[in-house]
Amino acid sequence: MGSEVPPAAVTIHVTGFKRFHGVAENPTETIVSNLEQYLKRKGMPKGFILGSCNVLETAGEGAVAPLYLTLKSAVKSLDSESSNLGQTIW
């Protein structure tokens, strides 16, 4: 029908991890590091928004603070947006 509201966009936050003991290169670091540029070239699928791309340390303590900041920034952006929010995927 003509008065239907379009579906809200889905925001995606992508997290990769740096190398860890015994592994020279973590593929998730490469993927996440290149994802933004790739999507700029190829385009984001309709209905999706890239919220963030972050690469974290694999050591538990080294990853806690950056992960917390990432989550906190996403919550702040949710608070400032309209009530017609879509889904958020981490």
Automatic annotation (TrEMBL):
UniProt superkingdom: Eukaryota
Sorted alphabetically, the Gene Ontology BP terms of this entry are: proteolysis
Query: Which InterPro entries does this entry report, sorted A to Z?
Result: Peptidase_C15-like (IPR016125), Peptidase_C15-like_sf (IPR036440)
Question: Which GO molecular function entries does the Swiss-Prot or TrEMBL record give?
Answer: cysteine-type peptidase activity
Keywords noted in UniProt? Hydrolase, Protease, Thiol protease
PANTHER family the record matches: PROTEASE FAMILY C15 PYROGLUTAMYL-PEPTIDASE I-RELATED (PTHR23402), PYROGLUTAMYL-PEPTIDASE I (PTHR23402:SF1)
The similarity annotation says:
Belongs to the peptidase C15 family.
Give the protein's recorded name. Uncharacterized protein
Q: Which organism is it from?
A: Papaver nudicaule (Iceland poppy)
Q: What is the lineage of its organism?
A: Eukaryota, Viridiplantae, Streptophyta, Embryophyta, Tracheophyta
